[in-house]
Every structure is written in C-alpha cells, then in structure tokens.
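@channel sequence for tomorrow's demo:
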Amino acid sequence: MAQKGAHTQSMSRSGTTHTSTDHYKQKAMETASASPTSVAHSSRNTMSGVGKCFLVTGSPGVGKTTLIMRIYESLKLSNPNLKLQGFYSQEIRQGNERVGFEVVTLGGRRGRLACTATPSPEAYQWPSVGKYKVDVASFESVVLPELKIREDTGLFIIDEVGKMELYSSYFFPAILNILQSDIPLLATIPIPKYGKDLPAVLRLKNHPGATMFTLDQRNRDAMKDQIYSQLVDMLPKPLKSKTRDAGLGDNAGIFAN
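structure tokens (generated this afternoon):
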C-alpha cells in the first residue's frame, strides 16, 4: 500500500575517480552546511505538491532490491534513451556464508560496502554494523559520482538509504541535492528498528512529495506495476521514430507496460 508524505500523496580508485569524488564531496559539504530551514524551504519550493520521491520499505529479504531492479529493467526496455543513475546493493557470499555487501552502479561499477573480514590494518578503524565493517571510502568512491545531478538525468535509483550507507557524511547531503532538483528519486529504506526510524530515513519519509510503498510477499507484482506506472507518467517520454510514428498522431510513442 502506498502512503503519502505529510503534504502530498576491494575497489581501487584511479586519479579520475578521486577528482570526481572530491568534487562531489565539496558540493555535498555545501548542502550539509546550509541551515535546516533553508534546505527545508528549498525542498518545499521544488517538491511540494509533486510526488517525486518514491520510497520502498519492507522486511529484510522481502525483495526490495529485486523490485527496484525490475522497475529499472522495465524503464530501460520502454525508453532506452532515458538516463538513469544510481546504485543497488547485493550480498557477497563465500559458499553458503554471507561475508559482506557490495554496491553496484547502474553502469556496472562495483565497490565494497561492508565485510566480515579485516582486509587491511586500516579496517580496524572502520565503523561496524553488527558483524560487518563498513568500507566508507570504497562506498563513496563508487556512489558519490553516481549521485551527481546532470542535465540529462531522468531518474535516480538508490538501494538503499540504510545505516551502513549513512556512515558516509556525504551520502545524505547528496540525496538532499536530488530532492531539491526536479528529478524523481526511487529509493529503498529499511523498516524501523524497535519502532524507531533512522533520523535521515525519517526526514525522507516526512519530505513533501514523498510516497512510501510497503512491500510484502503478496503485493510484489502489484507494487512493481503501480510504481512503474507512476514513474512513466512523470518521466520524459521516449523519442519517437519518424518512420514508425508517421500518421499515428497522439498514439505514437506510448510506453509499453
């Protein structure tokens, strides 16, 4: 069921990656240094009354990442020219044992997010979530460039806004930059632990224009169709083929379901 917001419905880094990441960190720091009042005011001006923040939540293992990727594949199929940016998370396994997580960009770049082992002396200083050590530097080197707003960006996909990811001090400011733009955001968020949301997650859920979808095993197919349909309505339409669409008038270039 969709719930409306308050007012509306490992990895080595090259020199190029360093430059891109450092540049984006500077932009994120500018957003983070802005007063909460100014950030909130800007968000209301650009997003109020426009449902452009889609948040998917549900129990661990229910299929949030699978849902996000099914929507991504459907969007790419229906509109190959649509510029999609973002990342998803997946497990790292050795045999039957889960030994960590990695982030994968929509363009295929990968980086370690967390691991159970200690790959270097520096890893002893990494923050911990349960038995996992979070590799913040690896995460940032892969993810921050993906969250940079570009002129042709049609949609941002983020899987997920969770405790591990939020150990990066630049990650949430990058999300705030997206929310202040006119570009839709599709993101997964964890369910509240002990009934209490992470502060950043709560801020997203309360954002004007946010719509939350709670996923379970029974509604997965219906949820995919619902989110996909709403995104198609607000995203740029696919380019029309002059030969194919000649004489078709208003029926040309319709998205496939």
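heads up for whoever presents: Residues 15-33 form the longest helix (19 residues).
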